[in-house]
């Protein structure tokens, strides 16, 4: 009986640890290459350095993603509610051309970068445990991850996290 109880407690501990929120990006994620709208390639680490000292809302999206497009009005509402935050849009569009068209077509306002590694099984997606887009991540002013995962821009955890950081 004791073995069963101990096994249950160990299993419960492992499950809760696997669901723990990450507070920083892996070395692999930070080293992954992305492209700015002017065509410059840089690492994710270089991008994050630009926004040190600010609350950053990361939106991982793609113009081909129906849920991303449906969620854009919620993102706009979030931007109106928290205009002091930086909105960092990381796209998994297939080409720079489709990415640029998507930004313009959907009037996406913020900082834009195209992720150069592939979506499924790519370095960045694996590093952030990406299983769905849109995906929102919030960084505090020190660059630590304050919220690791939200899939709706009106998620209460997302809103309260940003509110607490400002």
From TrEMBL:
<dbReference type="InterPro" id="IPR050553">
    <property type="entry name" value="Thioredoxin_ResA/DsbE_sf"/>
</dbReference>
<feature type="domain" description="Thioredoxin">
    <location>
        <begin position="23"/>
        <end position="166"/>
    </location>
</feature>
<feature type="signal peptide">
    <location>
        <begin position="1"/>
        <end position="22"/>
    </location>
</feature>
<dbReference type="InterPro" id="IPR036249">
    <property type="entry name" value="Thioredoxin-like_sf"/>
</dbReference>
<keyword id="KW-0732">Signal</keyword>
<dbReference type="InterPro" id="IPR013766">
    <property type="entry name" value="Thioredoxin_domain"/>
</dbReference>
<dbReference type="GO" id="GO:0016491">
    <property type="term" value="F:oxidoreductase activity"/>
</dbReference>
<protein>
    <submittedName>
        <fullName>TlpA family protein disulfide reductase</fullName>
    </submittedName>
</protein>
<dbReference type="InterPro" id="IPR013740">
    <property type="entry name" value="Redoxin"/>
</dbReference>
<dbReference type="Pfam" id="PF08534">
    <property type="entry name" value="Redoxin"/>
</dbReference>
């Amino acid at each position: 009986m004791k073995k069963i109880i101990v096994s249950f407690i160990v299993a419960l501990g492992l499950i809760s640890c696997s669901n723990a929120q990450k507070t920083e990006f892996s070395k692999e994620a930070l080293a992954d290459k992305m492209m700015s709208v002017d065509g410059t390639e840089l690492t994710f680490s270089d991008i994050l350095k630009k926004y040190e000292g600010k609350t950053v809302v990361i939106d991982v999206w793609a113009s081909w993603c129906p849920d991303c497009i449906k969620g854009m009005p919620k993102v706009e509402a979030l931007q109106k509610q928290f205009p002091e935050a930086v909105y960092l849009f990381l796209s998994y569009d297939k080409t720079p051309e489709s990415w640029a068209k998507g930004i313009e077509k959907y009037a996406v306002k913020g900082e834009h970068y195209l992720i150069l590694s592939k979506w499924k099984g790519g370095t960045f997606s694996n590093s952030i445990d990406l299983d769905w887009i849109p995906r929102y991540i919030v960084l505090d002013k020190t660059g630590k991850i304050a919220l690791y995962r939200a899939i709706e821009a009106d998620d209460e955890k997302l809103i309260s996290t940003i509110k607490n950081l400002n």
